[in-house]
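haha ok so turns out i had the wrong file open the whole time. this is the CORRECT one, sorry everyone. sequence first:
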Amino acid sequence: MTSAGDGPAGASGGDGTAGASGGDGTAVAGDERTAGARGDGRVGVGVAAGARRCRSVRAAVWLVVGVCAWVAVTRLVGAVDWSAVADAFAGLPVLVVVPLVLALLLRQTLNAVPLTYYVPGLGLRRSMQNDLTANVVATFTPPPSDIVVRVAMFRSWGVDPTAGMAGVTLNTAKFYAVRFLAPTLGLLLLVWGGVDRRQWVVAVVCGLVAAVMLTALVLLLRGDHLAAWFGRTAARLVALVRRGRAVDPDVWAATMVEVRARSSASLRRGLLPSMVALVGMVLADGLVLLVALRACGVTGLSVVDVLGPFLLVYPLTLFPLFGLGLLDALLVGAWTTAVGVEQEAAIVAATIVWRVVTILGTLVLGLACLVAWRSRHRGEVAAR
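then structure:
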């Protein structure tokens, strides 16, 4: 933070340049203002161009994801009888919307629980609103728009934005760990029915990754020295990946030390309950899929048959749009092998229903949260 007298603003106030002489000083100040205006204009044009590039890249990513999804389905599953898939959609009962929406709300509620432990005074409702709004903003606008809206929401609620973003960082780290923990849970579900070697390897490797991530997170918050080392190491890795972009290891180290100071107590307090909530969130995601399979008329799959393979491939949600295409194709292939090719169309229809609910449904909830927050925030501003 800089005070009023520090930096350029302070320099022009009392000790030189503009105050040095009458006419010359005025001329210098005017030239500086003109140059500053030109600079601001160039910065504005650069920002606008960058935003356009981000939108173009995002559109290209969505196109590539769509193509990859189609290729994954056709290559891993084979030719799909889309007329039969349409028939499966036509047979969906209208009332299935109720359990699907309830399962989605359960999923999003459990996803919001960890932030309530990390950010004092936030509460479950606002945590859920913050997550959903940031998700919809990040989907349609370039970064760091989601961070901007999170910080604005924290401030409007009287929550310290630094503490809020530290909590978001912890929550994100925990979720990545749970992503890699999921295959181990899937293995435990499937072990009594027989598990092949490949599934054992996937589950063990992912379990080790989750253990390393959680251990690193705990160690990170044990002392300033280790936190600073993590910050510098992360900065060097980012510099290697993003060549040509200035990355200051000391700044990263200082940031990690600050996060450690703010988050160590809340991490210890919320470590177990937040992990339980995030595992519950993953299971709720699987519950949406289970309801969709039942509604589309798929038979012969028990709860374990559905959740086991789902948890084994859950790390694929790291890919864009939660692994759209690749994850779906693997699940459709596994379940079609289990119950027969005659139910393939119904299984495909169920995975589409699951995607609509968990992706589009989440975006709709996020948009509603954004509109509600903006309306209330504007009212508070007007009242002031």
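The two ends are 27 Å apart (CA to CA).
again sry for the mixup
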